[in-house]
Amino acid sequence: MSVVLLFGGVAVVVAALAFVLNRRFGVLALALAAGALLAELWAEWLAGVIGGLGVSSVVGLPNGVIATIILTVGPLVLLLVTGPKGPGKLLRLISAVLVGVLAAAMLVRPLGKFMSLDADAMKTYKLLSDWWRYAATVGLVAGLLDMSVPLKAKAPASKKTKR
């Protein structure tokens, strides 16, 4: 159950942020792809740096988990704050849900390396681990498609000149 809560919590928090901040899905999906690549390349090094700083004793998580989360979610957070806004309420909701699911999917394998699980949690993790690549592939392809569709920007309100 803790595995479901962990990845469900990630999905809900990311989806809520994406909805509130109204960011475009494609940019956020590609940020997660960049973060996953950064985590693959640099998580061990960053875990060593974090271990040297003693942060894990404060947070209570293994250094590898902290490093993986920082590197995977870092680009997403950056673009949640500064990225382009998305259009419409319905697309905003769909985008938020997709980004939340994609974020959880992108973290399944990297975080699985650092988790110790009981038998029931291992079954759930195995199921998530078997399906993560499909969710990630669909999410990333949808992100690329979203980025290839031009959206019309709202025209700025024109100021009437007094005569």
The SSE order reads HHHHHH
Give the CA-based shape.
globular
By secondary-structure content and strand pairing, the structural class works out as mainly alpha
**How many alpha or pi helices?**
6
Overview of the structural elements:
By secondary structure, the chain is mostly helical. The protein contains six helices and no strands. Helix 1 packs antiparallel against helix 5. The protein is globular, with a radius of gyration of 18 Å. The mean pLDDT is 86.
Short précis:
By secondary structure, the chain is mainly alpha-helical. Helices cover 79% and strands 0% of the residues.
Features:
163 residues, mainly alpha, globular
What is the topology?
Layout: H1 2-21, H2 25-53, H3 55-59, H4 63-82, H5 89-112, H6 119-148
Helix pairs in contact: 1-5, 2-4, 2-5, 2-6, 4-5, 5-6
